[in-house]
Amino acid sequence: MTHMLHAAARRVQWGRTSAAKRAACLVAAAYGLRVLYPIIRRRMKRASCESGPQDAGRAETGREVPHRSGSREKASPAVDAEFFQQLLELRKLFFPKLVSSELGLLCLHSVALVSRTFLSIYVAALDGKIVKSIVEKKPRSFVFKLIKWLMIAIPATFVNSAIRYLECKLALAFRTRLVDHAYETYFANQTYYRVISMDGRLANPDQSLTEDIMMFSQSVAHLYSNLTKPILDVVLTSYTLIRTARSRGANPIGPTVLAGLVVYATARVLKACSPKFGKLVAEEAHKKGYLRFMHSRIIANVEEIAFYRGHKVEMKQLQKSYKALADQMNLILSKRLWYIMLEQFLMKYVWSSCGMIMVAVPIITATGFADGELEDGQKQAMVSERTEAFTTSRNLLVSAADAIERIMSSYKEVTELAGYTARVYNMFSVFDEVKRGIYRRNAVIQESENNSKNEDKAELHIEGPLEIKGQVIDVDHGIICENVPIITPNGDVVVSRLNFKVEEGMNLLITGPNGCGKSSLFRILSGLWPVYGGVLYKPPPQHMFYIPQRPYMSIGTLRDQVIYPDTVDDMHEKGYQDQDLEAILRMVHLYHIVQREGGWDAVMDWKDVLSGGEKQRMGMARMFYHKPKYALLDECTSAVSIDVEGKIFQAAKAAGISLLSITHRPSLWKYHSHLLQFDGQGGWRFEQLDTAIRLTLSEEKQRLESQLAGIPKMQQRLNELCKILGEDSVLKTVDKEE
Predict the structure, then answer these.
(1) Alpha helices in 77-100 (DSSP H)
(2) Is the preceding omega at residue 565 within 30 degrees of 0, hence cis?
(3) Which SS3 state, helix, strand or coil, does residue 67 take?
(4) Which of 293, 561, 680, 682 falls between 20 and 30 A from 207, CA-CA?
(5) Which residues contact 468 (CB under 8 A, 6 or more apart)?
(6) What pLDDT is stored for residue 50 in this prediction?
(7) Which of 425, 435, 429 is nearest to 191 (CA)?
(8) Residue 667 to residue 645: CA distance in whole angstroms
């Protein structure tokens, strides 16, 4: 008995190397179990109680709630009924009509995917025949089948390349459709201005119009390819395997049930452990857009930042934005690490072991592969038949497993697609609502600002969404405001009711302190801001021309700067030639730049080439080119010399253009006949302007200001003398510190 135990012990002795390997495997398995078990448990517990507590938590937290057009607020994009509804709505943009180029590409792509599946089945069968010829030691058959295998590789590789080509073409076609529709909506009825200035739901429209549309289109096209072909592969390969098993007398029910159970268990585990990739990807896209916005902001204000030497502050803000993006990307990578590890373990190793069982059982149990009591040569033929069946079945099963793996891996891509879908759908919803005059801003309460405002200002604020109750009526002559309020997009009521009338030939001077509503009135007259009440009678937009303090310089030639926003064809239709433009530039004392910059066809960055005064005179040149009935001038000549400014205003009056001017220069008062003055507290008055009296009053005001400016210094010196002499004075003031 003792000898038997010693002999058994010697047989099961482990060497140091094998013991170390087994110990390392056990440690790795224990660590993986320790890491994965809490994650799986937490995911399953969160999935069971996700609906109730999250809604309550969202109600208690967060003071800023972004609005979602026409739907309830959700914590994050998810693969649910709303996602499919949004995708169906966007599908109408992909395929606007039954017969379209996009549908043709989709059909070609589908044909290529189906062809690739049949080629895969044929190649798998051909592989089995090649192995059979090797086992049977038939070189002629082996060479013939190998040549056939090489010949079939030509259409197979073409189909593979065509699938990738058509997928990219389909993504580009989808993106083109979306971009065309987005641009048409974005630039209709000045939606681009209202989305940025009057609505707060889209923080970075440029991100939505470029990156989000591109990622959404690529994701849709790739997901179609990743779902259509695998599903077809699973159906056809399963049918082929079952048919082969039955033809050889094997029962396919057991392997089929095993495959179904393994796939179902894998799907349940992966779904329970899957992170919310939709929310993570949407947040990553948002942070990318904000980082791009920070860079564009620096580029737009580069000179001011350089003057202030604010590079350290801007660099810290950029670093902060990039760190937030990097943290988000690291979070996604860390979550993908464990998810992909679990996914590969289940789909590569668990499925491979089950696949071996599924292939082996039908071959072992099939009556068609039994050797029987036959000659040796016939037995050898059955071995080759089993080898062929095993090779073919293994290739088909590998193809089916790969297809199922891609289908299950696509869940992660679907969740990411849900994030892109939500952002693109939200963008189009915002564009549509803003186009219809529905504006929503995020309600962010700033207590410090509210405390600094007086009670009168607090009363002049409208909470909640603003209702557009006013009317805008286009007329041929005159501008009439009847009880029109001036309300900012934030809901601040600058003026509750404004009434005035400007007839043709009248020139209106608009004055008042900063923030009293002067520029806001121009925005209402130009149609940028809605009329929330009353009635506004004004000429059509083509008869009104607005010139800001900083005129916009477009990309193009010098000619394009004068005729903006017209094109050269529009200029010729209006009967203008270059000689007419030269006369206009002489009128604004700007003709010298034609020779200086190299002629009318010179293309430069005019924003940097022209000085501030030259850009303002270019804005006035545009006014003379378009010849509007009414010109809205918002401090548009503040950088122009007084003598040139006076000549330009005189030429505008001579051309019959009615001027509505915001200016602080007394030298321009004489070119206006009426005055609209705001007091900054919601009050206003409209009257005829007496330039002589107003100039006299202005001079007296300046004289008093200069006289009273020295009184505080004289009072301070008197206090110092009283303190030095130890005497008192009836004019001495008491210091605030005392």
Answers:
(1) 81-94
(2) yes
(3) coil
(4) 561
(5) 437, 530, 531, 532
(6) 42
(7) 435
(8) 9
Instruction: Tell me the residue type at 48.
Output: S
**Residue written as tokens 């207590």?**
447
DSSP state of 350: I
552: Cβ contacts below 8 Å, ≥ 6 apart: 564
Helix (H) / strand (E) element for 547: namely strand 544-547
Tell me: the pLDDT tens digits for 533-546?
999 999 998 899 99
- pLDDT tens-place string over residues 21-63: 555 555 555 555 555 555 555 555 554 444 444 443 333 333 3
Query: Do 434 and 407 meet the contact criterion of CB atoms below 8 Å apart?
Result: no
For residues 439 and 193, the answer to whether their CB atoms sit within 8 Å is no
What residues are paired with 480 via a beta bridge? 501, 537
Taking CA atoms, 718 is separated from 411, 706, 723, 734, in Å, by: 83, 20, 9, 11
- Residue 398: CA atoms inside 13 Å, Cβ hemisphere, count? 9
pLDDT at 442: 59
- Taking a C-beta distance cutoff of 8 angstroms, is the pair 31, 338 a contact? no
Q: Whole-angstrom Cα distance, residue 738 to residue 731?
A: 17
Residues ≥6 apart with Cβ < 8 Å to 428? 90, 93, 181, 182, 185
Residue 113 has pLDDT above 90, yes or no: no
User: What does the DSSP assignment read for 236-291?
Assistant: HHHHHHHHHHHHTT---HHHHHHHHHHHHHHHHHHHHH---HHHHHHHHHHHHHHH
Tell me which long-range contacts 349-357 makes (C-beta under 8 A, separation of at least 24).
Answer: 350/262, 350/266, 351/262, 351/266, 351/401, 351/404, 351/405, 352/401, 354/258, 354/259, 354/262, 355/394, 355/397, 355/398, 355/401, 357/255, 357/258
Answer positive or negative: Cα dihedral of 669, 672, 675, 676.
negative
674-704 pLDDT, tens digit each: 999 998 888 898 988 887 777 776 766 776 6
Strands 508-511 and 674-678: parallel
Q: Residue 232: name the closest of 116, 122, 125 by CA.
A: 116
What SS3 class is residue 535?
Answer: strand
Q: Which amino acid is at 474?
A: D
Longest dimension (CA), the chain: 140
Sequence letter at residue 158: F
Mean per-residue pLDDT of the chain: 77
* DSSP state at residue 74: -
CA distance 87 to 263: 27
| Number of other residues whose CB lies within 10 A of the CB of residue 252 | 18
- Tell me whether residue 64 is exposed, middle or buried, using C-beta atoms within 10 angstroms of its C-beta: 0 to 12, 13 to 18, 19 or more: exposed
